[in-house]
């Protein structure tokens, strides 16, 4: 039996591929990734969700829309709707934690 409470630490990069995550986990993964990306001072990230029927794309873009550290986002036209690019509000997460 798999323990879903287990914390997995991963190195952060400018791209996140969601293919290895369960659909139910995607909102929290995107939320935590964006926060970590801002803390790493990334101004732009790319989130790969795949093309399919657009369900994962919708989940990702809803999570980005709700995240206070996302300035704007759009479909990565080079991926034929298989990825989303987001511009982040750099520095805000780390500034908020210093006080």
Q: Would you write up a description of this structure?
A:
It is built from three helices and four strands, in the order E-H-E-H-E-E-H. With 99 residues, it is an alpha+beta fold. Strands 1-2-4-3 form a four-stranded mixed β-sheet, covered by helices on one side. Helix 1 packs across helix 2 (55-66).
Write down the overall mean pLDDT: 86
Rg, rounded, reads 14 Å
Shape: globular
Order of secondary-structure elements: EHEHEEH
Chart the SSEs and their pairings.
Layout: E1 15-17, H1 26-39, E2 44-48, H2 55-66, E3 70-75, E4 83-88, H3 92-98
Parallel strand pairs: 1-2
Antiparallel strand pairs: 2-4, 3-4
In short:
The chain has a four-stranded mixed β-sheet with strand order 1-2-4-3, covered by helices on one side.
Which terms would index this structure?
single chain, 3 helices, 33% helix, 4-stranded mixed β-sheet, Ribosomal Protein S8, Chain: A, domain 1, alpha+beta, 99 residues, disordered C terminus, globular
């Amino acid at each position: 039996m798999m323990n879903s409470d287990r914390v997995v630490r991963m190195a952060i990069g400018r791209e996140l591929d969601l293919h290895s995550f369960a659909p139910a986990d995607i909102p929290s993964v995107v939320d935590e990734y964006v926060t970590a990306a801002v803390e790493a001072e990334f101004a732009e990230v790319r989130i790969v969700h795949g093309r399919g029927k657009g369900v994962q794309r919708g989940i990702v873009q809803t999570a980005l829309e709700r995240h206070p550290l996302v300035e704007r986002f759009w479909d990565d036209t080079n991926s034929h709707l298989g990825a989303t690019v987001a511009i982040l509000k750099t520095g805000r997460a780390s500034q908020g934690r210093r006080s």
